[in-house]
Amino acid sequence: MKKICIVLCLCLAALLVLPGCAGEKQLTRVRLSEVTHSVFYAPQYVAMSQGFFRQEGLEVELTNGGVDAVINDSPVIGYYLAQGGSEVAKTVGDVMEAEQYGIAVKKDNIKLLEDINKALAELKKDGEYDKIYKTWFGEVKK
Q: Which of 11, 54, 76, 125 is deepest in the core (most CB within 10 A)?
């Protein structure tokens, strides 16, 4: 009985010690771009400080530049590329999901709504809308 207890204790000790001998697992580095330090990144800050990403094998780095890839709204990416970003970046793949943009006005402000719609119609009619779009977002997609 004494021998069985010793063998069981040795096996238990080996089970507790051996996982530590495997060494530190290789981490995959992931760089995320943050526009600025902000409350929007608070979950990442907390997860990083608590080591949650490391537990999953990830080394997460928040940067203000030097990222490998980014996902953002098409107009934002278009603006960045049109303003010179095309020298260091390019778009790849298809648009993942299209969304419409709009201008909101109070329900009872009919005058403002009509003025905005009239101005947009005039800009589109004389081609100025497309010029503005190209300046800020790149090629106009019809």
A: 54
Helices (H), the chain: 2-21, 42-49, 52-55, 74-82, 110-125, 128-137
88 closest CA partner among 69, 75, 104: 69
Confidence of residue 80 (pLDDT cuts 50, 70, 90): confident
Among the listed residues 60, 58, 49, 47, the one whose alpha carbon sits nearest the alpha carbon of residue 25:
58
Q: Are 63 and 84 in contact (CB under 8 A)?
A: no
Contact 134, 140 (CB under 8 A): yes
Residues 79, 85, 87, 89, CA torsion sign: negative
Give CA–CA dist 69/92, Å, rounded. Answer: 10
Q: Tell me: pLDDT of 33 over 80.
A: no
Query: Which residue type, as a one-letter code, is found at position 25?
Result: K
